[in-house]
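Methods — Computational structure assignment.
A single polypeptide chain was analysed. Its primary sequence is given first, followed by the predicted tertiary structure written as structure tokens.
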Amino acid sequence: MRFEGIWTPIITPCTKDFEIAESALEDTVEFLVGKGVHGIISAGTTGEYYAQSFEERIHLAKRIKKLIDGRVPLVVGTGALRTEDSVEYAKAARDIGADAILVATPPYSMPTGREIALHALAIDRAVNMPVMLYNYPGRMGVNMDEDTLDRLGRSPNFCGIKESSGDINRLHLIARDYPHLGLLCGMDDQALEFFAWGARGWVCAGSNFAPEAHIALYRACVEEGDFSKGRAIMSAMMPLMRVLEQGGKFIQCIKHGVTMRGIPAGPPRKPLHPLNKDDKRALEQVIRTMNTAIAAIEETGK
């Protein structure tokens, strides 16, 4: 499987009582597919999988699969503290007909490279389906190092990696030494650099509410090879990326952005809390400015 294009780690819309908002979830899927994203990921960080029960995660994966109705691929996250639980999530993903699974390093335990590989290989043996690896040391505590990647090369199912370390040297390493892994940008403010190094995919939470901007950058860099235009689009997007990353309010910002598009995303699950009025106004202004700038770039071609 080739992980190319814009992949949206879909939010989980909630009611004010923190239940899954089924109607808003349907609207979100229709919005994303209608705007042209290339794939959807269930149970990613942006989907707040860490604050959901096993039953909720499986329900969401089934529901999203049904709502997509074959129009774009679905990747289902398997993140968990224990390998045994990740295996169960992977089996459920296989049983509902997911196109691939997302495999991350188990958080908190800080396993070695060998142990990460054994974790991923156990999941692979259980389901035998395409895997998008997820390297996010900022949340997991450790990198999927060269020992991990070398060991995982034994199975052809490991065909993509979402690289979210923020370390530009990791980008160089993967692009140069692991060309069999489809490289996906997982650090939004480095998207231009990823595309320059041959990445053909971007897993971007902001595409939940601004798919047009993310697709515009992908199209300029990957489809058109126009990095001058890409730099202009990236420059217009950078203020948004700074707002999303500052102050630990990432998921809150994504959910408010979706609400701005007319879909009531609701609050994040605790321990997180919604944005205050000042943060909402700041985000709204940045998005308006970005949209205006990118519309002008698209119109003039530069």
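Note: The longest strand covers residues 158-163.
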